[in-house]
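Student: Send me a single protein entry containing the residue sequence and its fold in token form, directly below this note:

Tutor:
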Amino acid sequence: MFLFSVVNLHATEIYGNAKDYAGSELIFYRYQDRITFLKEEVFRLQIDTSGNFKTSFDLDEITYVFGEFGIYHAYLFAEPNNSYEIILPPLVEKENKDIFNPFFTPEKVHIGIKNLQKTDLNYLIIDFDYYYFRYHDLKFLDIYSQGLKTDIDTFINEINKQYEYADNDYFQSYKKYRIAALKNLATQKQYEKALVYAYFTKDSVLYDNPAYMDLFNNIYSDYFDKYLVSKNGAYLYAVINYGHSIRRLNMLLSEHFELRNKQFRELVILKGINDSFANKNLSWLPLLLTLDSLHITTQYPQHKIIAQNIADNTLSLAKGTIAPPFALPDSAGNIKELFDYRGKYVYLHFANTQTYSSQTEFDLMKRIYDRYNGYCTFITVLTDEDRAAASNFMRKNNYNWTFLFTEINSETISHYKVSTYPSYYFISPKGTLIMSPALSPTDNFESYLFNIIEGHDMNEIPK
């Protein structure tokens, strides 16, 4: 009898040693698309007590994968059927001021890879980025103000010549669109339509190439909102607000010579819809209906994914939608689910006892809890690392409502889009969001809770 071990011959492998991270687990992601930047898990690194790690995963194409740990956004370009011995950056944890700063920007680092060859994709991009961004950062103001009078043409010729030997298509596209961004800066976007025609209209759409999508997002940022104030703005407004027709929208935009490529034009439409949801110059429901029309009719699978992501991102935490579920431990380790509180109003509070702003509102929460405990359930989700100390803080101050715990980078925090502490949500007995986000105790949430308890119309609650 023969025993065969099943080996995946198409797997990409990551391995190495990182003593700084011994005993930890690092999660690496990819972007589902580069319009919404929603992420999905690709693989996990289980790092043993000696710092060793090894994992494999499947890829269909070259993929930008990244981990967010400590102060870093650490990334590499993973190719199918390849093996990488990686070198993680020295561990530097966030300080409290960084953890609770909603504007904190992680340090982007290209993960080191041992034994890289000059022709390897990651080597090429690391090397190119060094020269490109050094020039870009040093000459930015000169290029913007003086344009083609600077030495930009000399730089472009030299950097193109420097990488003539590289026959990697992904890298050559990466280089091409970085250089195109430099040209767009030098001409102060005066010839942007011609640049789009030259670099986008006649070429394939590169959904997961950062250089391609960075330039695309820069050019088409708030596209519909800018279109509305152009001479044909009224047509765009009518097509979306009254027609919700993707066919008519395609007809309108196809009149522009640089948007004659249907696949690229649809990507522009998706970008326009996504940005318009945030800017609110077009009504929410017509935008959603137009997006749904595109999702149904598109022949491009990636556009279905982007459309769904835009819808999910827009509807997530919207008033009237189901509150994201969670199952979290209390101080005794008992798991509590949001579903356990169906049939009751829930005032959901995210906090961290180490932040001054959270501390100042606990006493106000206690006052509301003492008055309305029989009518509403109060839940505080804490992200404190020291759970014992946090529990002691609660007991010492006689805060007796429900306290649950989660990590600061957990799915629950992500699903509720918590970026500042404290944050609040108010949930109906049916599990739907009544106020998202909800008023804080400082903002007189109590008066609105009183109105509900007294049986007043739910429409009195502000959006």
Q: What stands out?
A: The longest strand covers residues 39-46. The chain has 16 helices and 16 strands. Confidence is low (pLDDT under 50) at residues 1-7, 456-463. Residues 385 and 407 are 7 Å apart (CA to CA).
